[in-house]
Amino acid sequence: MYTILLVVYALLSWFPGGYDSAIGRFLRRICEPYLSLFDHLNLSLGPINFNIAFAIIVLQLAVQALTRIIVAIF
């Protein structure tokens, strides 16, 4: 679910004023604390910023690791 929120947050950058809408403000409060962990990496290639893509990959790897740990315990 959080991955979907991150994707929607990234897509809002395509719309002028997307982050200023009610949905944009909500997603900013939810997503920016996690995304701020990756700000120091500076994963930009020209005008394209890959921080959100990297954050999604890290999130998915963490979910897979936790799933394997939980399955191994039970």
TrEMBL record:
Among InterPro entries, the record links this protein to: CCB3/YggT
Q: Does the keyword Membrane apply?
A: yes
Q: Which keywords does this Swiss-Prot/TrEMBL entry list?
A: Membrane, Transmembrane, Transmembrane helix
- One CC-aspect GO term: membrane
> Which stretches are transmembrane?
48-71
Q: Does the keyword Transmembrane helix apply?
A: yes
Q: Which Pfam families match?
A: CCB3_YggT
According to UniProt, the name of this protein is YggT family protein
Please spell out the taxonomic lineage of the organism that makes this protein: Bacteria, Bacillati, Bacillota, Bacilli, Lactobacillales
